[in-house]
Write a structure and sequence with these properties.
The complex is a heterodimer of chains A (about 240) and B (about 220).
Chain A (H helix, E strand, L loop, with lengths): L9 E7 L8 H7 L9 H13 L6 E7 L5 E3 L4 E3 L2 E3 L3 H7 L4 E8 L3 H11 L3 H31 L4 E6 L11 H5 L10 E2 L5 E2 L3 E9 L18 H5 L1
Antiparallel strand pairs in A: 1-2, 2-6, 3-4, 4-5, 6-10, 7-10, 8-9
Chain B lengths: L1 H13 L18 H10 L4 H21 L5 H24 L7 E6 L7 H12 L3 E4 L6 H9 L5 E5 L3 H4 L1 H12 L4 E5 L5 H6 L4 E2 L3 H11 L2
The chains are: A alpha+beta (about 240), B alpha/beta (about 220).
Chain lengths: ~240, ~220
């Protein structure tokens, strides 16, 4: 028996307080490739500078839509919401196969960090620009983590779990399928616009899908399911 | 004289931009790539020697270390800043023709993809290797690559993509440009790209890191 909460079509949008987006300077160095505690001085100094200033440039939002379980179907290399088929490919479909319904989500940190990064880069300060950009990437992933926690709270009392999040553009899921995802969300949801070529504005935004069900789970690392051998995240894990 | 060039190479390798640079700490208060390049020019060293035996030597070491996983992207960016500062001093010599680039390469991130760090790293390393870069930016269509190729300045194009999906756009770009410019070479790179994929789409070479691209340019495209 599927819980009643999945038997509704639920849409929610949240503003995320910048203080809730915590990024440690050590982890920032680590995600750039350095071993913990071994980030060189000039890089560490800039990371600390970005760290103390970046929250004032954040305008984070996230939101999701949970679908009625009867409107979602999962297949070997696809999932379907109403009549729209999403061709995720087998890698992602396999991770979703025990899901009973799905959540489409978006998350963004707004345009501030991107603007700051571009300012530095156009002045020739590539390292500062790169580190602002890297912090922005970490920050938007943190917003996604917060979204997952919100979803867990919403679904926990019903004994429903969530899968990891999956986004078009990764693991063989074509980036153009974002058009389909966005077609299920209100215009400018979370302040994000999608171009015809499937690029999101603000750039530091994420969209994707999460599976929901009684017998699904999140896993700590996902590199084993992905075939991108040269990914920097794979190297640093 | 040779000592000066060695010092320039060391400054580039270690990212010592100028006198005011605090890093690396053991070089604090000492002259950096900028002052040493200026001094080299003032003492009559040829701009070409400064480029080849100073800047390129330093940047080559950086490219090798990055390839070997001994340093990371920020380290390359620090070194590139030192190199760029010195390159500014050599600009007039490029304009006068006293110093010549080895050749020109068109670089761009393919249509649908906004990720530019990989492309920029290649740009910095190949510039440090004496190549002129025509950077078309990100989200670049086949049409734009073709137009740049038709300008005739470059005989090689470098394509970058970070996503498995946008990587697919490389094929159309290679086809469109090679259809009109069959002699132009394509090198490709980016996280999901492989040498097998490069061969499938008709690209001439794939590189996982910029140093490999530079070595290919030096051996196949000069």
């Amino acid at each position: 028996m599927i819980d009643p909460i999945v038997n509704i079509d639920l849409l929610q949008e949240f503003e995320i307080d910048a203080s809730d987006i915590q990024i440690s300077t050590e982890n920032a160095g680590h995600s750039l490739g350095y071993k913990l505690g071994q980030t060189p001085e000039p890089v560490r100094e800039i990371i600390e500078n970005v760290h103390s200033n970046f929250s004032t440039h954040l305008k984070a939002k996230t939101g999701f839509r949970i679908f009625n379980y009867s409107d979602v179907e999962f297949g070997k290399d696809y999932f379907k919401i109403f009549d729209t088929i999403f061709n995720t490919g087998r890698i992602i479909a396999k991770q979703l196969r025990t899901s009973e319904t799905a959540v489409i989500f978006t998350a963004t940190i707004g345009p501030g960090i991107e603007k700051k990064s571009k300012q530095y880069m156009s002045n020739g300060d590539m390292l500062e620009g790169y580190l602002w950009d890297a912090f922005g990437s970490d920050a938007v992933e943190k917003v996604c983590d917060i979204l997952e926690e919100k979803l867990i709270q919403v679904l926990a009392s019903q004994n429903l779990n969530i899968t990891n999040r999956y986004s078009p553009g990764y693991c063989g899921w074509n980036v153009t399928e974002q058009q389909k995802l966005f077609s299920f969300l209100p215009k400018d949801f979370c302040g994000i616009q999608l171009s015809e070529s499937s690029l999101m504005t603000p750039i530091k935004s994420v969209s994707g899908l999460i599976g929901v069900g009684r017998n699904v789970e999140r896993t700590e690392y996902q590199c084993s399911i992905c075939d991108i051998e040269m990914c920097i995240r794979r190297k640093t894990e | 004289m040779i000592e000066l060039l060695t010092q320039i190479a060391d400054c580039v390798e270690r990212g010592k931009v100028d006198l005011n640079s605090k890093y690396p700490p053991d070089l604090a208060g000492k002259e950096g790539a900028y002052e040493l390049t200026k001094k080299a020019l003032d003492t009559g060293l040829k701009a070409n020697d400064i480029l080849n035996d100073g800047l390129m030597t330093g940047m080559n070491r950086v490219g090798v270390k990055f390839r070997d996983g001994k340093i990371f992207i920020p380290d390359v960016l620090i070194a590139a800043k030192a190199m760029k500062t010195s390159m500014e001093l050599l600009k007039p010599y490029f304009i006068s023709g006293e110093v010549k680039h080895k050749g020109s390469i068109i670089l761009g991130t393919v249509a649908g993809d906004l990720h530019d760090i990989g492309k920029n790293l290649v740009s910095m390393v190949v510039q440090g290797g004496g190549w002129n870069v025509i950077d078309l930016g990100v989200d670049v269509s086949a049409e734009k690559f073709l137009n740049a190729a038709n300008e005739g300045e470059a005989n090689v194009i470098g394509l970058s993509a970070l996503l498995t999906s946008t990587m697919q756009n490389m094929k159309g770009i290679v086809e469109k440009v090679k259809n009109e410019q069959p002699m132009i070479k394509f090198i490709v790179g980016g996280a999901p790209v492989t040498s097998k994929y490069a061969a499938e789409i008709g690209a001439d070479a794939y590189f996982a890191e910029p140093q490999g691209a530079l070595e290919y340019l030096n051996s196949e495209c000069v």
